[in-house]
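Run log // design_07
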């Protein structure tokens, strides 16, 4: 397991280093231009910060409890039933859309920050499922599990690649439905008033 983690970190470092060196050439390449660094989605400073977080051994903090918590939360997310997962995802994206709407309607930066903080904090505290957040959390939990963290976690065996794909697919569908429902609610309220 430690060899696998070292291989993953080394492969990631080589990938990021390659992208840092070839950004200009990659922007002209038909497939490579979609890569995070070439497209500008991830800036070199952000890539360095991500590498620093990995090298800081955050998962080993508090005697490995941080890594074990990653495994515990990821295993719990991977063990959800399809109905529960779907409706948690619907509720999650309804709150995310509400936060976006509050952010757009706010006039100052303080209003935006305070406005988006409440719905986002609520969905995180309630344990709702967001596909983009899970794209980070579930693979990280699997990586921590393969590195030996969370061996005593109850459902750690449920955390594998198929469970991650299952969670991401159901959460994505639920998030889309949640966004559509919020959009339909806004359309119903505002378009109906405009028509009158």
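design_07 sequence
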């Amino acid at each position: 397991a430690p060899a696998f983690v070292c291989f993953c970190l080394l492969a990631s470092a080589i990938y990021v280093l390659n992208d840092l060196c070839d950004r200009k050439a990659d922007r002209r390449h038909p497939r490579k231009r979609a890569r995070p660094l070439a497209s500008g989605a991830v800036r070199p400073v952000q890539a360095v910060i991500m590498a620093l977080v990995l090298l800081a051994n955050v998962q080993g903090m508090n005697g490995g409890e941080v890594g074990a918590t990653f495994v515990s939360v990821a295993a719990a997310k991977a063990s959800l039933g399809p109905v529960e997962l779907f409706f948690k995802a619907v509720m999650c994206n309804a709150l995310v859309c509400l936060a976006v709407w509050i952010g757009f309607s706010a006039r100052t930066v303080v209003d935006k920050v305070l406005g988006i903080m409440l719905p986002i904090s609520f969905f995180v505290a309630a344990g709702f499922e967001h596909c983009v957040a899970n794209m980070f959390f579930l693979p990280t939990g699997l990586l921590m599990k393969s590195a030996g963290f969370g061996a005593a976690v109850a459902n750690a065996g449920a955390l594998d690649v198929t469970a991650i794909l299952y969670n991401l697919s159901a959460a994505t569908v639920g998030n889309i439905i949640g966004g559509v429902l919020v959009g339909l609610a806004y359309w119903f309220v505002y378009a109906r008033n405009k028509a009158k």
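The CA atoms of residues 37 and 43 lie 6 Å apart.
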